[in-house]
Backbone:
């Protein structure tokens, strides 16, 4: 069957018109979001809504396979889907011009609805970027399709030439204007971020009233391939739901403490916290999405205010002393909520509101101006970044974000050990080699690490000197490697005497368990 070349050309131009309409809608939305707030853009709003509604198993799969690039993959996926839908609308508009344009408006309504229903929404104005962008896209699609259908007889050479020239001129102008609008929007949004960055640059962290001791000699092993004892800020893992990293000004930041059992509600500024006695501690954080042997664990030196001191000043008592609240709900500026046991926060451990990380103000990606951390608890129940509100309540009366998605209410970090070197499927030479890695059981401490080669006996590894019970501990194991394929397995024992279980479980609902192993070849 022969394809009518003129019909094919018109269809291709209609598809291009749909793409340009979608591109214009996103570009104009970007520009409008600069006047509202960056988080109100349609891709961010729809992406956030998608994250909120993604089944935990799928979300965990994305983190496992894409790591910290999971948000980029999601955003690219949204753009691709929108592009395909725009092509369909362009083709549909060739026959039903008004209905096709109305389809673009419908997607604007969807984006606006996603924006205003986000936990961090500031009101109906959050819908403006999606709606205005969709209006621009719908108008452009209507115009471009009008150029193609201006003359009813597409077979007439003169008519075809005029409609195609008109289409190409309009399409080119739209592409240029859309690109300019999008670039201006990105520039204005980045300018807003630069204001917050300027406040961070101006921060001079005070010396800690209770400084951390120097890392003991022997805590950091000189073994090639092992994770450094202190994780550099740039290498520290990041797992959260924020598609746009919040850029909060230290000058305008506030923290409110209120709720059940709070006799004296308080509000603090960033300067208030810096003016208090600060503590400095080495603490290892772990994400509950960390698979056995996974990378989502890191150790840093944190500077901050004891959270228990702030709670006591507000009149809060732990349940063990008659306090009515057993859950502390921390809220982030992006709407995230995390729930921590009040008893754990106030039991004497170094739970803090951190302002510094490895000698610097917190990076924006890790919570500037202030984040919370509680040694011994997985991040999803303790490590609220960009914190702005603390409410005292009960586990029975409120389910935070992750609990609503079937994760456990309480989540102490499980005892784990990881082999850092050799890497999986490494090819080694016969003879002496060093197996090494890290082990952690925050707030309990690591007392023993053992390694097994194939199905042989468990043999003790050499432990590095311990810094504190709240940090991971490096270990090494000298191995005389014989030719052939081998499986190396590691297990740890914490200070309570509990041995790392061999039973494999998923990360859901309260963290993965099992023993890490790697397969190597020795030639």
Residues:
């Amino acid at each position: 069957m022969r394809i009518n070349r003129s019909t094919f050309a018109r269809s291709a131009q209609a598809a291009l018109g749909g793409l340009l309409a979608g591109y214009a809608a996103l570009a104009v939305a970007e520009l409008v979001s600069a006047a509202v707030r960056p988080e109100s853009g349609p891709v961010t709003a729809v992406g956030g809504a998608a994250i909120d509604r993604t089944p935990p198993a799928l979300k965990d799969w994305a983190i496992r396979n894409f790591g910290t690039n999971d948000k980029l993959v999601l955003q690219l996926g949204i753009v691709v889907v929108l592009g395909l839908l725009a092509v369909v609308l362009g083709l549909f508009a060739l026959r039903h011009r008004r209905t096709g344009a109305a389809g673009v408006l419908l997607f604007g309504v969807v984006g606006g609805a996603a924006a205003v229903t986000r936990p961090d929404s500031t009101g109906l104005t959050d819908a403006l970027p999606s709606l205005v962008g969709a209006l621009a896209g719908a108008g452009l699609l209507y115009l471009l399709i009008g150029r193609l259908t201006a003359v009813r007889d597409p077979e007439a050479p003169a008519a075809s030439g005029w409609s195609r020239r008109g289409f190409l001129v309009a399409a080119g102008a739209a592409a240029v204007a859309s690109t300019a609008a999008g670039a201006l929007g990105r520039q204005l949004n980045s300018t807003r971020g630069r204001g917050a960055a300027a406040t961070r640059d101006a921060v001079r962290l005070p010396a800690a009233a209770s400084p951390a001791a120097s890392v003991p000699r022997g805590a950091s092993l000189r073994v090639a391939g092992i994770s450094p004892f202190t994780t550099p800020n740039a290498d520290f893992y990041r797992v959260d739901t924020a598609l746009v990293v919040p850029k909060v000004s230290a000058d305008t930041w506030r923290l409110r403490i209120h709720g059940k059992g709070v006799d004296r509600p308080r509000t603090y500024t960033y300067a208030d916290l810096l003016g208090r006695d600060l503590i400095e501690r080495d603490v290892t954080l772990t994400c509950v999405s960390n698979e056995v042997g996974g990378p989502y664990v890191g150790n840093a030196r944190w500077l901050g205010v004891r959270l228990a001191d702030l709670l006591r000043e507000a009149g809060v008592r732990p349940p063990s002393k008659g306090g009515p609240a057993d859950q502390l709900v921390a809220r982030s500026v992006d709407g995230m909520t995390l729930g921590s046991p009040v008893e754990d926060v106030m039991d004497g451990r170094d739970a803090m509101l951190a302002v510094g990380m490895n000698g610097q103000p917190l990076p924006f990606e890790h919570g500037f101006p202030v984040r919370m951390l509680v040694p011994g608890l997985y991040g999803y129940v303790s490590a609220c970044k960009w914190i702005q509100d603390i409410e005292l309540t009960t586990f029975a009366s409120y389910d935070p974000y992750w609990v609503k998605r079937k994760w456990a209410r309480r989540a102490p970090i499980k005892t784990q050990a990881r082999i850092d070197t050799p890497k999986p499927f490494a090819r080694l030479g016969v003879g002496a080699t060093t197996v090494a890695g890290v082990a952690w059981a925050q707030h309990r401490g690591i007392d023993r690490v053992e390694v097994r080669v194939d199905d042989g006996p468990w043999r003790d590894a050499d432990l590095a000197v311990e810094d504190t019970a709240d940090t991971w501990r490096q270990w090494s194991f000298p191995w005389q490697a014989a030719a052939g394929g081998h499986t190396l397995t590691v297990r740890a024992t914490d200070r309570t005497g509990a041995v790392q279980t061999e039973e494999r479980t998923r990360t859901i609902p309260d963290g993965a368990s099992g023993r890490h192993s790697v397969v190597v070849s020795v030639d």
Notes: Confidence is low (pLDDT under 50) at residues 151-162. The longest helix spans residues 157-201. The CA atoms of residues 292 and 516 lie 6 Å apart.
